[in-house]
Specification:
Layout: E1 3-8, H1 18-27, E2 33-38, H2 44-51, E3 56-60, H3 77-82, E4 87-90, H4 93-98, H5 103-115, E5 119-124, H6 128-132, H7 136-147, E6 157-161, H8 175-193, H9 195-199, E7 201-205, H10 210-217, E8 224-227, H11 234-246
Parallel strand pairs: 1-2, 1-8, 2-3, 3-4, 4-5, 5-6, 6-7, 7-8
The protein binds 1,3-dihydroxyacetonephosphate.
1,3-dihydroxyacetonephosphate binds near residues 162, 207, 229 and 230.
Organism: Silicimonas algicola
Family: Belongs to the triosephosphate isomerase family.
InterPro entries: Aldolase_TIM (IPR013785), TIM_sf (IPR035990), TrioseP_Isoase_bac/euk (IPR022896), Triosephosphate_isomerase (IPR000652), Triosephosphate_isomerase_AS (IPR020861)
């Protein structure tokens, strides 16, 4: 399976950040591994232009479920595609928490992404409170069930498991804990989607850095990473890409 090293710049990045794309593309042409940068929407077009003809692909951090219309401040999947994006992240925990997005909305966004020809990266993950209550698999399983369209395929859908408590905290689950959740997601995907479920990439996110990447990528059913803070600088993200290429 083609691995995926995805960078989510979140609300970071100005025109000066374009230099990071050039540095990433020249230093890390890694076959067997897709490299993705999801900049803020303001930069998507320029980042896509800078990445054209390189090993770096681009995507957005969110999209609206509708194609167009009176939705001030939102962008549609068609607009993402038009700006050069090939992927869109949907259901990130920061959007679920800050914008009250539920599984049904996330699923509608994933459907819109597919309709526009984009690959949807559907994010799931438990809070610390849910983990401590022993509810991790139930919560994540429920999000997987509710957030994925019925016709999702291995080609058009990626699952990102991002424990909320590991995001931006420097805290990472043990490799056994990651293995357990990824295996459970895999079992659910295979039960629902058959061969497509076996082929869907499941990537891990939450405080991934060059220094812990190799250990995480050695975990079964970890097919890449969704990286926040460590994706902002090509020097840091390049180390993660290299670790994935070597895994
Ligand atoms: O939320 C994340 C990526 O979407 C993870 O963020 P960090 O890598 O900064 O923990």
């Amino acid at each position: 399976m083609q691995k995926l090293a995805a960078g989510n710049w979140k609300m970071n990045g100005l025109a000066a950040s374009l230099a990071e794309i050039e540095a990433l593309a020249t230093a890390h042409p890694t076959p067997g591994c897709d490299i993705l940068i999801c900049p803020p929407a303001t930069l998507l077009s320029r980042v896509s232009d800078a990445a054209l003809g390189t090993s770096v692909q681009t995507g957005a951090q969110d999209c609206h479920p509708k194609d167009s219309g009176a939705h001030t401040g939102d962008i549609s999947a068609a607009m993402v595609r038009d700006a050069g994006g090939a992927f869109v992240i949907v259901g990130h925990s920061e959007r679920r928490a800050d914008h009250g997005e539920d599984d049904a909305l996330v699923r509608a966004k994933a459907e819109a992404a597919h309709d526009a020809g984009l690959i949807a990266i559907v994010c799931v993950g438990e809070t610390l409170e849910q983990r401590e209550a022993g509810r991790t698999l139930e919560v994540v399983g429920g999000q997987v069930a509710g957030s994925l369209p019925d016709d999702a395929t291995a080609e058009d859908t990626v699952i990102a498991y991002e424990p909320v408590w590991a995001i931006g905290t420097g805290k990472v689950p043990t490799t056994d804990e990651i293995a357990l959740v990824h295996a459970d997601i895999r079992a659910r995907l295979t039960a629902r989607f058959g061969a497509d479920g076996e082929g869907m990439r499941i990537i891990y996110g939450g405080s991934v850095k060059a220094s812990n990447a190799a250990e995480i990528f050695a975990v079964p059913n970890v097919d890449g990473a969704l990286v926040g803070g460590a994706s902002l600088k090509a020097a840091d993200f390049g180390g993660i890409v290299d670790a994935l290429g070597a895994a």
